[in-house]
Model the fold of this input.
Amino acid sequence: MFTEHPDPLIYTGANGVLDEALFQDGQVRDHWGYLLNSLNELGCQNFRDRQAKALRILRDDGATYNIYGENSNPSHIWGLDMVPMVLDSVEWGKVEAGLVERAELFNLLLRDLYGPRDLIRQGVIPPEALFCHRGFLRPCQGVHLPGHHDLILHSTDLARNQNGDFVVLGDRTQSPSGAGYALENRSVMSRVFPSLFRDSHVHRLSVFFQRLRAKLTSLAPDQNQPRIAVLTPGAHNETYFEHAYLANHLGFNLVQSDDLVVRNGYLWMKSLDGLTRVDVLFRRVDDWFCDPVELRGDSRLGVASLLEVVRAGNLVIANPLGSGVLENPVFLRYLPEIARTLLGRDLRLPTVDTYWCGDSGDLAYVLDNLPNLVVKPVFRGQNSRSVYGPELDDAALNQLRVQIQENPTQFVAQAVVEAAHAPAFTGRELSARPVILRSFAVATETSYTVMPGGLTRMGLGERSFTIASQAGSQSKDTWVLASEPERAPSDDVMDEPVSREVDLISLPSRVVENLFWMGRYAERAEASLRILRVAFMMLNGDEVISPLTQHHLLQAVSNITVTPAQPLEGQNPEDALQSIIQNGAVLRSISGNLNAMLNCADETKELLSSDTFRVINDIRDALSILDDNFALSLSSAPEEALDPLVTALMALAGLIQESMIRGFGWRFMDTGRRLERCYQIAMAIDSLLVPAVPEADQSKLGEALLLSLEALISYRRRYRARVDVQASLDLVMMDNTNPRSLMYQVERLGEHIRALPKAATHMHELPSDQRQLLECETALKLSTLARLNAAEGERRLHLEERMQTICDQMLGLSEVITDRYFNHREDSQQLVLSNWEGM
Done:
């Protein structure tokens, strides 16, 4: 019985469909009772508050999913319904045994298809099922992994039919996605519902990931010093968060194709200290895109000659290239006979009834029963999709018949499985939604280990057919309830070799390049925001500034933001500044700089903490409403619209300074910040102090400079006088205790440059980056304030020449760092395109 609550959450299910939580008479199933009673006691409003907390955690963790086709905002916070999917341990034990058996079968099938192909010789499967499928890669013939298993990770989509039995809908074998999201779901649920999770005795997921790490490590030739990397297509991939999350959790480097190169028959990662060999590649890139030389020639996601390294036995790829052929749904049609041939028995888990239109008997059945079937393409391409027969009208059915008859070997049909429903929170109540489960199995030394539960996805509405993340479906944490307290992991799982991975594989040069530019873009945006804020404060201040001061102030805004800031005829200064803020497409404007910084942060997601992402999300939020806030505040203190961004950027700088380990990643990010700050300070001095103007105007321009560099208070306390050019230059140029002075930036840059790795040489000359910096430091130290302050006509020419020299030296230093440490892609492609690519 449910406890009375003023704001109850009661689940009543849906009529006419099987329910995971309720019997047909409406009684709650035993293993769902504690959960539903707890949610009812919690109440709707409290549950809504927990849901909001979960959303904040997901956002702070950077848990996103990219929806293709949404160009304006493809990145969405990962959808998680806070009502978990609950499975009984006894039932799960049977399902788990069936999943292990299925993984073993698909492993044997993979070895046969790229080996002797006995199944074809014995007539178990027709040759067309293999050779007409794009997933079959002839260059992978005879390639096998060390040990008994070629298929390292196997994933299965399951649905419970209306008879109450789990049925397999399909298999994922190339680079199955979802395991990382399942781990993130579990992390969020255990934090938001700690007592409920603890009291429910849910099976842990940690053993699965320990097994995955151990298996990948065992594939390396030197297991004490394994060199393993996770290959991702990049930040625009739909599941990029998962790639970064798994790389972090497993302790492996996350790499893209630009980070890798083939040399002398081996795969190498381009890192700061040169080329570092990679022994095992855990790929998240589909087969055809992995090698632009032997596979898809227009691919930018793969590494040229990668297959050559694999065939030579110098690299292990998990899952192996060519494993995508196992996703061919035609094999499901012949799976019972395949199982009897390879295993000697029928499978425990049934597969949905599948019909291949390449078989004449199946074709006739499909054409006669199209309104009751789901039609799928044999190969899952970018634009291919399943067609749900019951939703089609007569015209659409006839058109589908024509398509099938034109190319029958490229279509399969499956029986419609109406998935069981489970409770889901829809904002005000618990409603029934159809659910499917994606399971995961990882190879071990002797068999497979299955993740307890997996990733549950639910439909958008009751009885909805499409359940896909790209369609906006949400996910659920899957709880397999333990019948008794779970034992701690055994020693063979926990006992892994301990080594300092940082000594074995340095950071990819692409990563440090993004960190370097993340620092530069952040500093560039902050400098633009500060000078704009100062301009608004002085233009709207109680002291009226002269047209000459206004001219030079707006010229400083123009120089620092690299956007036209001088007012047009008849346009007031505020309108000119507003155009800078609102024009996000102009290079190096505020929006452009911040968006570039956010892109760099996305590319280095695996290195940034949750606290850092929390601040980055604050910047993203403040940027998204900048135009609206500025428009509303234009008539009153418009500079306050810029304050949230300045504060967030300062918080990001402080977090990086206090939280990042002083490794190469931090050094490159801080190098970017110091280099850009030095450049921006020199630009500000050149714009505001080089013009020789009357004393009153000079004082105002000096005050604007000190305000933009947060040095006005220090100036007044130190000099207790009106702002003077010579004293201002002493504070913002020479004072190495001022963190916003030129000398401070140069000294910090010197520390970083000397700490970066250098190529071994017997010569004693200074490297080019140190020479560049020494010239800048010497120019500063040999400067005299009196000469810098000396005016010739309307300008201080010596000061102007010195600031221009510093700007040029900073740009030169940036080029030297880029040439020495960062990535340079060498394009490789096929000379002759394969006809397979157009299919």
In short: Residues 65-352+417-493 form one domain.
